[in-house]
Amino acid sequence: MKKFLTIWFGELISSIGGGMSAFAMTIYALKVTNSVTAVSLITLLAFLPTVLLAPFGGFLADRYDRRLLMMIGDSFSILGLLYIVWQVDVGSTDLCPIYLGVTVSAIFSALVEPAYRVTVSDLLTKDEYAKASGMVQLAASSRYLISPALAGFFLAYFDIRFILWLDIVSFIVAVLLIFFVKKGIKTSNQAHKDQISFGETWKLTRSYKGLQSLISMMTLVCFFIGLVQVLIEPLVLNMADTQTVGVMEALCTVGLLVGSLWIGTKGIHSRHAEILAQAGFLAGIFIGLSGFVMQVWWVGIMIFLFFVTLAFVNSCADVLVRVAIPNELQGRMWGMISFITQFGTVIAYLCAGFLADHLFEPAMAEQGFLARTIGRLIGSGAGRGIGLMLIISGVGLIISSLMIGRNRSIKQINIVKER
Fold it and tell me: What's its membrane topology (predicted)?
């Protein structure tokens, strides 16, 4: 556990630094262009390469030293940041350098994620998986809770370059800590080096009972969670100001933080499939209820509870995958799983705004065709179409969770662990 904690601390520092850079670049882009589209493009470029390259990063994690891959990924991610700093130094106000720098960093980050996930399995016992998963979520949450506050404070006294240099230092700290741990770990010879295609990896999941069902259902869960993430902000903006939206974002992170902290300290030692289904069921109820009432306090409570339960969904799914797959295959499997499940989120990001603007909001307007039916139950007017979408998302999560709970093959993963 000591070696894992050392690497985890390095990734925590790196996550905080990355969150500060993301916040600073968002503010910089808004000041330069006053365009939400520019901000969205930065977010997409930071996210999409990691998803697309996850299978490739996973294959590398099974063929080469995983700690070395993490060091290479973190080290070369610095190049994108240095390029942005250089362009700001020479007085460029064009956002193209930021787009390019963010993309470069995201490409090399694709090496880190699968190797980091498999390192958990390398260094810990099965009984420690759930606790480690909670801690990993805790580190990831820090970029949304701690980073914006720190970046906001520093931007009051310094410009974007200072934040970027702090991020560069955070990468260096992570690399040094990984190097320190790496010296005490013998590099094992990974097997199955010939099985490297994506199709063969997906076929290989059939060898592990319940894994394909779990991946398919978690993709569906990610889709509904993605819808929720996109819809919360515009829903709150129909009731309150941008400051309140910031508070709601903090509540999301605090909820995930509370759930992750509980798991990180207490752990989940058994019945992972059952707890996954129960947590998903509760998450569906909470987010569905958030769409019924146009009151900020009500939505805030439901969002907080939703993200608390989401921490248990993520941790239990993480443990089930680790238990089902042999260590020597986990790199490519994690890469493939991230690629498939995160595409559920990408699809939600792409369609949520269109569905809200062109279907649900017009339908739930005062004179909309659903105003006299569903509108009598949840109200009509601005924001009620989004509310209906949240209710539908909640129902989708509940159904997905019931399917997980009733799937015998997924339950078998737990039996393998407990023997």
Answer: Multi-pass membrane protein
Of the candidates 312, 278, 305, 254, the one whose C-alpha atom is nearest the C-alpha of residue 131 is 312
Q: DSSP per residue over 22-80, as a string?
A: HHHHHHHHHHHH--HHHHHHHHHHHHHHHHHTHHHHHHHHHHS-HHHHHHHHHHHHHHH
d(CA 368, CA 361): 8
Residues of 366-385 as b/e, b for ≥16 C-beta within 10 angstroms?
eebebbeebbeebebebbbb
Distance, CA of 298 to CA of 164 (rounded, Å): 38
Q: Which amino acid is at 203?
A: K
Q: How far is CA 31 from CA 20, 27, 28, 34, 407, in A?
A: 17, 6, 5, 6, 51
Least confident among 85-94, 196-205, 255-264, 391-400: 196-205
3-state secondary structure of 184: coil
Encoded tokens for 103: 């993309």
Report whether 345 contacts 148 (CB < 8 A).
no
Structural domains for the chain:
1-182 (1.20.1250.20), 196-419 (1.20.1250.20)
The answer to whether 53 and 147 have CB atoms below 8 angstroms apart is: no
Q: What angle do CA 341, 342, 345 make, to 5 degrees?
A: 110
In tens, the pLDDT along 93-105 reads: 778 888 888 888 8
**Alpha-carbon gap, residue 320 to 317, rounded angstroms:** 5
For position 127, what pLDDT does the model report? 67
Count the neighbouring beta carbons within 10 Å of the beta carbon of residue 153.
11
How many CB atoms are located within 10 Å of the residue 16 CB? Answer: 21
**Whole-prediction pTM value?**
0.68
CB 383 within 8 A of CB 238: yes
